[in-house]
Design brief:
Length: 311
């Protein structure tokens, strides 16, 4: 095996790049801007140029590089092709084929949330676990499922898309995906705000949230930690939806560790407690003791997981 590999995480505004040694040590990380003009046609050439420049700068032989792993915000099939990635303005893109041609290195590609889950399973909160479910609670809800140390990609590249699991068959508002009742509508930052507004309208309780012109998920989570009654009632509902969903997913894949990441996870243990309470109540007996933990790699999970894909 070579000494080095690259892990790349393509985001909507920046591309995070990591040079790793093959034992999983992050040697150096840096960022380049994501140039989305001309349907994002420059993104992969920019990434390849960054990789090639780093190899030259450090005097590394390409024979000593295992490959380049790349995470992208969109569905990626098992061949490393992306049918469409709206955040990058991409239509069909053969990510692996293009990267291999531009770098002369072996390449692998995966969905960014799936890749982040692999990163946490390799060097993060679930290090040492080969069966992991990770949920990323950000503007939306991302997910990644790791079985036997490998990402579940699925036939359409939609494996682990648990933010769009239908958890409320009676929801009347629409999700960004067009369906109604997705987990994302309850457990994302946007979903938490939506739930808090509903709770405010339905409840007669005093709340610090009532005086705010513009409620943010952070404001709800801060109020939750201060035992604000409306925020507590909101988070109980969020915890029940999320804990209940994880209880179902656990019956499908029986993970060793469940990881909660993304901006919302900064709420820490109080958030975990309210998810775990419902998870334990609803899941199958064998899965009740499965630990639910906060992600530890933060924004670096993507580069770790991307690097892991080529090893
Ligand atoms: Zn949806």
């Amino acid at each position: 095996m070579g000494t080095y590999c690259f892990g790349i995480d393509v985001g909507g505004t920046t591309v995070k790049c990591g040079l790793f040694s093959t034992d999983g040590t992050l040697v150096e990380k840096w960022e380049i801007p994501t140039r989305k003009e001309n349907n994002g046609d420059q993104i992969l050439p920019d990434v390849a140029a960054a990789v090639n420049a780093k190899i030259e700068e450090r005097g590394i032989s390409k024979d000593d590089v295992e490959g380049v792993g790349i995470g992208v915000p969109g569905p990626v099939n098992s061949k490393g092709e992306v049918p469409r990635a709206v955040n990058l303005y991409w239509g069909y893109k053969d990510v692996v084929g293009e990267m291999e041609k531009l770098t002369g290195l072996r390449a692998k590609a995966g969905n960014d949330a799936n890749v982040a889950a692999l990163g946490e399973a390799w060097k993060g909160a679930a290090a040492g676990s080969s069966d992991v479910i990770m949920v990323t609670l950000g503007t939306g809800v991302g997910g990644g499922i790791i079985i036997d140390g490998k990402i579940v990609t699925g036939h359409h590249g939609a494996g682990g898309e648990i933010g769009h699991a239908n958890v409320d068959h009676h929801e009347t508002e629409s999700c960004n995906c067009g369906n109604k009742g997705c987990l994302e509508q309850f457990a994302s930052a946007t979903g938490i705000v939506r739930m808090a507004k509903k709770e405010l309208a339905a409840s007669g309780e005093n709340s610090v949230l009532r005086d705010m012109d513009d409620i943010s998920a952070k404001a709800v989570l801060d109020a939750f930690k201060e035992n604000d009654p409306v925020a507590v009632a909101t988070m109980e509902k969020v915890g029940e939806q999320l804990g209940g969903s994880l209880a179902i997913f656990s019956c499908v894949t029986d993970p060793e560790t469940i990881v909660i990441g993304g901006g919302v996870s900064k709420a820490g243990q109080p958030l975990i407690d309210c998810i775990q309470k419902y998870y334990k109540e609803y899941t199958f007996s064998s899965c009740k003791e499965t630990p639910i933990v906060i992600a530890t790699l933060g924004n670096d999970a993507g580069i770790y997981g991307a690097a892991r894909m080529v090893l």
